[in-house]
Amino acid sequence: MQAYVVKRLATMVLVVLGISFAVFLVAHLIPGDPARILLGIHADRQQIDEIRRQLGLDRPLLVQYGYWISRALHGDLGRSVLTGEQVTSALAARLPVTCSLALGALLIALVIALPAGIVAAIRPNSWYGALITVASQIGVAIPDFWLGIMLILACSLTLGWLPSFGYVSIRESVGEWVRHLILPAMSIGWISGSIVTRFVRSAVLEVLGEDYVCVARAKGLRERVVILRHTVRNALITIVTVVGLQLASLLSGVVVIEVVFALPGLGRLAYDAVTRRDYPMLQGAVLTVALAFAVINLLVDLLYVYIDPRVKY
Amino acid sequence: MRRHVRVVALVASLLALVGGAVCAQQPGGELIAGISADPIGFDPHKTSAYSSFEVLENVYDTLVGISEDLRPEPALAEGWETSEDGLTWTFHLRPGVVFHNGRPLVASDVAYSLNRIMDPETGSGASWRLASVDEIQPTDGQTVVIRLKHPYPGLLTKIGGYKGMAIVAKETVEDGTITTRPIGTGPFQFVTYTPGDRIVLEKNAAYWQEGKPYLDRIVFRVIPDETVRTTSLMTGEIDWVDSVPPQQIATLSAHERIEIGETSGTAYWYIGVNLNHEPLGDVRVRRAVALAIDREEIAAAAKWEAAVANDSPIPAGAYYDAEIHPFRGSPNLTAAKQLLEDAGYAEGFTADVMVSNFYPETVRAALTLQSQLKGLGVELEIRVLEWGTWLEEEATGNFDFFICGWIGNLDPDDYFYAQHYTGEVFNFTGYSNPELDALLDQGRRATVAEDRYAIYAQVQDIVINDAPYIYLYIPKVVHAWQPYVRGYVTRADEAIRFVDTWIES
Question: Where are the domains of chain A?
Fold first, then answer.
């Protein structure tokens, strides 16, 4: 087991490095650069070259990447080329926002998906089972930003119950932290929940067809025990995989919702960094997301050992 | 006795009048202003981002200011004289002005700031505004002398027209904090910036305008989505919002509690034509396009009712408007087709138009343009680029047409020189006309108003008819705020000033 973990960690480092290099290349090779963004339309060649020189962008790409990597290995991810803000402190400030949002969305997703998926699997031919299937189909198709804006118009503007934008840190006020996260988390959580519902339903359905479930019933166990102890437990491998993938994709995919609700999160940081060609910020944001993806995947794989005793590394 | 009473009554009513006027503005309070994007750095000499200037407008001053009706007015300089030959300008600084760090403003600060803008090593995008300046010298603590290379009556608007010309504190440049913690002489001082979230400014108690500002604090909240921005104004979460999306002006006006400020702007939006790409080098082809389009329809598609269609960049009724409208009858497809035929393109041609989703109005305009030009036989391909790429393509001349706007046009020179003078920095069309160049140079030197008017009338005649730019519309500036926000004025030059703003309780 230990050897497995070490091997996985080593692979993770290589993958993350590879991603950082690919992003670096692509970001620098697409047209436009931060000097142009800074100077805008009012820029002549000389000024742009001067600003590029000040930002260190006139050096060869490999040299620039080399500098970045050597500093990154010491924990210094550089500074924003446009505002001078330290990348590590920007990431540290934005990460809690995105994590709060992702976890909130995941919570909503699970609260919806687990009961709904199980019920839809147990009673596939009932009217409520069919309703859940249809609702999840619709949920998957809804764009998150549309849902977000609809929720704002309904809950903020018309009803006045919840704020329409912004983030309050949990350290400032727990109540306000929750209030500001409800609408954005619901916008994504509803859709994520629809996706997970379908996986839970199909995983449970599959297990329900297994022989040991039949045996458990034949033994005279109560239905609730059959479902919870025997069925769901066995479906957990699939469910945990999907949830892990969802969490990882939530961490990287919340860009649109962070823009709509004006949340100062990681997704918004990455989006602004791309449009402004703020290379160090972009590198830092991508590195963080890639690491998060890799760590979550590793954790999910390790979790299998606890769920399924047959799994051994 | 009766005379006594009359005097007392007179004095009492005068006091009431004065007292009433002074008590109207209530000091104190916090304004929450919703803006559409994060600032890109706070160095006024380097950044060109409007979002940065919404903040910096309240933090810095310029040597000369621009009034609400767009005329130069005293700011850090309380007066100035020009020498007989027009080559030497002497500015007298207002006494008692202090920077936000307590240090008094002196003439060498002014010289330092303006020289920094001119210095090629700074790489400032505003340096072209001081192209006529030879040198800037502080002659004593309160006097700055600017010597020009040639007489230039438009100097005042160039020096003061925009906060990119701000007078900064040298120490912030030297310790590198100017980009993150600006220190100026303006009505509000910078407190904090939380990226992605908010910028906080606080009242400058030592501001040189007596009794102002009224507000204690301004909190700029960054809300990128335009629907959410206007919604949060309607829910009362914010007090003021910039850039009302034109399609929401009607909704906001109908809202009983929201005030809308609207004024015609100094910007103009246009189609830029690449004269180096055939067949656009032929003036008949350009004029054909200019005649074939329906500017009202394009303006409505781009800005709903928040723009005025115009085939000239200068708004109707402005002093320098020479009323040159050769394309007034458009759309006139018959005449346009005739011109194309004369140029040898009776079958039409294909071209692309470059727009950016950074300015969604240009995308809407391009779609309308595309369908309008079909009638002329012109197949238009629309390239929607993101902003960084758009800038790069414009600079390298990789386009046939593009749609963009120029803002901050105060002096007639602003409308034409940098864009159409042969080889000038912002001449992206490749237009070159020695007759126009001579007129533009004359216009810069002319000191008598009538002469300037005549010169720029000729300039308009040439530029509008030669159509390196096909002008489309002049947008209105629209802001919105809560009814308890008083004393805010929507300015034509789109500068966001809160110095006179107060909150009514």
Answer: 87-307
Query: CA torsion angle for B209, B215, B217, B222 (degrees, to 10)?
Result: -100
Q: Which of B227, B389, B404 sits opposite A30 (nearest CB)?
A: B389
3-state secondary structure B200-215: EEEECCCCCCCCCCCC
Calpha distance B409→A52 (Å, rounded): 28
Q: Bridge partners of A86?
A: A79
Does the domain at A87-307 match CATH 3.30.70.980? Answer given as: no
What is the C-alpha separation between B1 and A23, in angstroms, rounded? 91
For residue A55, give every residue at least 6 positions away whose Cβ sits within 8 Å of its Cβ, in sequence order, or none. Answer: A34, A35, A81
Contact A40 B49 (CB under 8 A): yes
Other beta carbons within 10 angstroms of residue A71's beta carbon come to 14
Q: Which chain A residues touch B387 with a CB distance below 8 Å?
A: 32, 37, 275
- Least Cα separation, residue A84 to chain B (angstroms): 7
Q: Contacts of residue A269 in chain B, CB cutoff 8 Å?
A: 195-196
Beta strand B378-385 with B349-356 is: parallel
Query: Could A31 and B392 be called an inter-chain contact, meaning their C-beta atoms sit closer than 8 Å?
Result: yes
A272 touches B at CB < 8 Å: yes
Question: What is the C-alpha separation between A18 and A6, in angstroms, rounded?
Answer: 19
Separation in Å, CA B302 to CA A97, B225, B248, B475: 36, 18, 13, 10
* Facing residue for B47 by CB, picked from A38, A48, A264: A38
A chain contacts of residue B231, beta-carbon cutoff 8 Å = 152-153, 156-157, 164
B58, B62, B64, B66: CA torsion to nearest 10? -30
Q: Which residues of A touch B116 (CB under 8 A)?
A: none
Chain A residue numbers touching B56 (CB-CB < 8 A): none
Interface predicted TM-score (ipTM) = 0.88
Kindly list the averaged pLDDT for each block of 10 residues, start to end, along chain B of length 505.
54 52 77 95 92 96 92 94 93 96 96 95 87 93 94 88 92 93 97 95 96 96 94 95 89 89 92 95 95 96 93 89 91 94 94 93 96 95 92 92 89 90 90 95 86 94 96 95 95 93 93
Pairing of strands B188-194, B469-481: unpaired
Please tell me the distance from the alpha carbon of residue B183 to that of residue A308, in angstroms, as a whole number. 62
Closest CA to B466 of B275, B189, B188, B294: B275
Chain centroid to CA A223: 36
Judged by a CB distance cut-off of 8 A, whether residue A29 touches chain B is no
| Per-residue model confidence as pLDDT tens digits over A239-265 | 899 999 888 888 877 889 999 999 999
B232, A164: Cβ pair inside 8 Å?
yes
How far from chain centre, in Å, is Cα B491? 9
Task: Give the residue ranges of DSSP H helices in B184-332.
Answer: 226-234, 249-254, 283-292, 295-303
d(CA A290, CA A283): 10
Which residues, 6+ apart, have CB-to-CB distance to A170 below 8 Å? A96, A100, A177
